[in-house]
């Protein structure tokens, strides 16, 4: 399923607990919870739709940036450099189209103030819940925005190849990305060896949620290796409890949370090269390597001694709403819940989400030392449909360390992070955001985008979901489930 739909799920959880197996950024908690259960880190591409920090004074329409608050200082070196690169753009305007809508758009809009004050360019912001559909309509009708925030690489590739309307990124943007982002991130904005789109926000999915409070009471230690994770699980069983809890029910998107499990384990069991081959169908979906990874997932997810703490048996995972799957961590009825950073938004207001709090998360350890520090996640990318100087200047700003830090400071409620290596973690306001940023900036991290966002929709948002549901609900064999998914892969 596309990131946009997944964001709808994650975002709904963040606001009213209201779909892709994966994930954007910018998910935030409600004001009542912002000081404790501070907003979830972006869940992946279109988790962006419900992302930005929610405040009572947030915009309620697609207002232009700079409409409130004092402009940022314009005497910084970055501003002088930008103005020297792009002269005579004062008084111009740039239009931005995105899935991040009111009221969550305010931190995005506020983060543009420094650019506007520096250059004199006005940024006109438009958020739409119909972003993905309407963007294609606007591009095909020769009425594209200047810039669009693309929530998944697959959509970027489609727009580039089918419309020819996306402009290659200018050298100033490419230079910024080379300096501030890893090669893996640049590759996701590259189509047919041409670099088009710089990364914007990001999210981390390779997390296991736990309760520091309960761990302290029980004398449990946060595992740093996979062997320790299994040993901890067995210790909890020996203490008379089930360690893990999960839920995958999500309407037509039921099963997406289990696709994240398999994606995480594909990276850990087989490494990034095989992961890339799997996504591009250079190896079949039912390759023995994929079967081995799913069997490894089953050692936890389909283990009746491990699952489903505080809820029921293994089959109950399929009937449990994904929003409810990990709530037992906060109440002490469950000890471990694998889920992305955005899951923070599901805990009740007043829940302290911190390393010394009621709940927190740790990195899902690597299984082998051969593949570095595998991390699954998502993000958005800045695509331009115009190469006017003011548009390129704004692209350059968004790809810089300056913008990343302005954005962090403009998001006081938390719920946003970037893979930009120039982002100062101290500017992030919540512990889970800070942890996500540290993981993304770790030189050992081997990041890969959520696989289902990169696969054909017939697989990534359909047969993959359904297959994983059957696998856990009916205890179907891994081979038969993967065979069925493979059969659904489009012929061309």
From TrEMBL:
Keywords: Signal. It comes from the Bacteria. Coiled coil: none annotated. SUPFAM superfamilies: Periplasmic binding protein-like II. Residues 39-67 are annotated as: Disordered. The keyword Coiled coil does not apply. Residues 1-28 form the signal peptide. This is Carbohydrate ABC transporter substrate-binding protein.
């Amino acid at each position: 399923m596309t990131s946009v739909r997944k964001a709808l799920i994650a975002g709904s959880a963040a606001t009213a607990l209201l779909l892709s197996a994966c994930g954007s950024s910018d998910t935030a908690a409600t004001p009542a919870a912002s000081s404790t259960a501070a907003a979830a880190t972006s869940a992946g591409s279109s988790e962006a739709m419900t992302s930005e920090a929610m405040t009572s004074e947030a915009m309620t329409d697609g207002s232009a940036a700079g409409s409130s608050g004092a402009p940022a200082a314009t005497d910084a070196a970055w501003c002088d450099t930008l103005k020297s690169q792009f002269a005579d753009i004062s008084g111009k305007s740039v239009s931005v189209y995105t899935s991040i809508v009111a009221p969550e758009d305010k931190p995005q809009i506020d983060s543009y103030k420094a650019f506007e004050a520096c250059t004199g360019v006005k940024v006109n912001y438009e958020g739409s819940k119909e972003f993905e559909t309407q963007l294609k309509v606007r591009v095909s009708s020769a009425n594209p925005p200047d810039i669009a925030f693309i929530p998944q690489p697959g959509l970027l590739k489609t727009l580039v190849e089918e419309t020819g309307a996306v402009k290659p990124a200018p050298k100033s943007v490419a230079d910024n990305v080379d300096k501030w982002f890893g090669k893996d991130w640049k590759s996701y904005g590259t189509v047919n060896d041409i670099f088009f789109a710089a990364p914007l926000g990001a999210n981390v999915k390779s997390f296991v949620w736990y309760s520091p409070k309960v761990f302290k009471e029980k004398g449990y230690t946060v595992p740093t290796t996979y062997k320790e994770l299994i040993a901890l699980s067995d210790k909890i069983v020996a203490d008379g409890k089930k360690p893990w809890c999960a839920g995958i029910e999500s309407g037509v998107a039921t099963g997406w949370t289990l696709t994240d499990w398999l994606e995480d384990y594909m990276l850990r069991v087989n490494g990034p090269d095989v992961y890339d081959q799997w996504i591009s169908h250079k190896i079949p979906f039912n390759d023995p390597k994929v079967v081995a990874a799913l069997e490894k997932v089953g050692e936890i997810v389909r283990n009746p001694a491990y699952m489903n703490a505080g809820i029921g048996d293994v089959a109950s995972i399929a009937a449990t709403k994904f929003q409810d799957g990990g709530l037992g961590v906060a109440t002490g009825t469950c000890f471990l819940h694998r889920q992305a950073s955005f899951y923070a938004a599901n805990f009740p207001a007043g829940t302290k989400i911190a390393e010394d709090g009621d709940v927190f998360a740790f990195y899902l350890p690597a299984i082998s030392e051969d593949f570095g520090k595998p991390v699954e996640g998502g993000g958005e990318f800045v695509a331009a449909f115009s190469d006017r100087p003011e548009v390129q200047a704004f692209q350059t700003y968004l790809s810089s360390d300056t913008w990343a830090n302005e954005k962090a400071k403009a998001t006081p409620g938390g719920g946003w992070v970037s893979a930009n290596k120039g982002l100062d973690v101290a500017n992030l306001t919540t512990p889970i955001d800070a942890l996500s940023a540290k993981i993304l900036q770790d030189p050992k991290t081997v990041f890969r985008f959520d696989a289902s966002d990169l696969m054909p929709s017939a697989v990534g948002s359909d047969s993959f979901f359904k297959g994983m549901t059957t696998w856990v609900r009916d205890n179907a064999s891994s081979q038969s489930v993967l065979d069925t998914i493979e059969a659904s892969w489009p012929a061309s």
